[in-house]
């Protein structure tokens, strides 16, 4: 059974740092790209970034809103992805989710990327 | 970046109603469009991928259509467990992945 679990959230002051973890099981972790998302209180979903799986180079990409402050990494031997949050701002408050990026086949377009397994989320509160 | 716009932002309906939610992309995305359902305090759940393909385990009352810039999610007969927020998401031009702002489906 595929499982994804986030941890590491909490209350942190503006300007400080926090590291979130995304621990996975039930699939060959290193083969998959892992995405991070966030959801501010009462708001919609925002893509934060991803780290590619080993077959795709293992490199990260970031949303413009977090580039230079957040860093995504992975430890394939432990099946964990990390989201390092630095220089936190009050507007970074929200629930942070990680998700496995799957690939589905569709006749019209061949393949499409989907977010097929999500964790339960971890709450990050940035406040003084 | 491709912008995704959903309408309506909220919707009140009754059990048994047929409901349609629309999603428009700022440029053509072919059929690279997914739909997710999110219930309060829970993670999003994949419902529809590639605009019209039903994710395994999702009830057949859910359906999707469209291509290019205009897409719809239809629930043929609302059930109590369907009251949730629905998001469309494009996988055409990435990164970044972008979502619609969400449609909150409430009980009338």
Describe this structure in words.
The complex is a heterodimer of chains A (128) and B (108). By secondary structure, chain A is mostly beta strands. Chain A is built from no helices and eleven strands. By secondary structure, chain B is mainly β. In chain B, the strands form two sheets. In chain B, strands 2, 4, 5, 6, 9, 10 and 11 form a seven-stranded mixed sheet that branches. Chain B starts with a strand and ends with a strand. Chain A binds chain B through residues 35, 44-47, 49-50, 61-64, 97, 99, 104, 106, 108-109, 112-116, 118-121, and chain B through 30-32, 34, 36, 38, 42-46, 49-51, 53, 55, 67, 87, 89, 91, 94-102.
What is the typical, i.e. mean, pLDDT of chain A?
A: 97
Helix content of chain B: under 10%
* Distance between the first and last residues' Cα of chain B: 36 Å
Number of helices of chain A: 0
Low-confidence stretches of chain B: none
Distance between the termini of chain A: 40 Å
Assembly state of the chains shown: heterodimer
Shape of chain B: globular
What Rg of chain B, in angstroms, do the CA atoms define?
13 Å
Largest interface: A-B, 26 and 29 residues
- Estimate the strand proportion of chain B: over 45%
Residue share in helices of chain A?
Answer: under 10%
Based on helices, strands and strand pairing, what is the structural class of chain B? mainly beta
Helix run count of chain B: 0
Q: Largest sheet of chain A at a glance?
A: 7 strands, mixed
Bin the strand percentage of chain A: over 45%
Mean pLDDT figure of chain B = 97
The largest pleated sheet of chain B is described as: 7 strands, mixed
């Amino acid at each position: 059974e595929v499982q994804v679990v986030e941890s590491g959230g909490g209350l942190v002051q503006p300007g400080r740092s926090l590291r979130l973890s995304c621990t996975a099981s039930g699939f060959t972790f290193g083969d998959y790209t892992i995405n991070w998302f966030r959801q501010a209180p009462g708001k919609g979903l925002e893509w934060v970034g991803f780290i590619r799986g080993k077959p795709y180079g293992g490199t990260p990409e970031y949303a413009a809103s977090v580039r230079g402050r957040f860093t995504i990494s992975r430890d394939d031997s432990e099946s964990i992805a990390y989201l390092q949050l630095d220089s936190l701002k009050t507007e970074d408050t929200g629930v942070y989710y990680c998700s496995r990026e799957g690939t589905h086949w569709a006749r019209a377009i061949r393949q499409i990327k989907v977010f097929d397994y999500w964790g339960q989320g971890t709450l990050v509160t940035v406040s003084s | 970046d491709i912008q995704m716009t959903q309408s309506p932002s909220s919707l009140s309906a009754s059990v048994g109603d047929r409901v349609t939610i629309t999603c428009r992309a700022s440029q053509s995305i072919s059929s690279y469009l997914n739909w997710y359902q999110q219930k309060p305090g829970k993670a999003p759940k994949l419902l529809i991928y590639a605009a019209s393909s039903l994710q395994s385990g999702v009830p057949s009352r859910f359906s999707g259509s469209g291509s290019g810039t205009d897409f719809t999610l239809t629930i043929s007969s609302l059930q109590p467990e369907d009251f949730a927020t629905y998001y469309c998401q494009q996988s055409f031009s990435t990164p970044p992945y972008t979502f619609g702002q969400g449609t909150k489906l409430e009980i009338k």
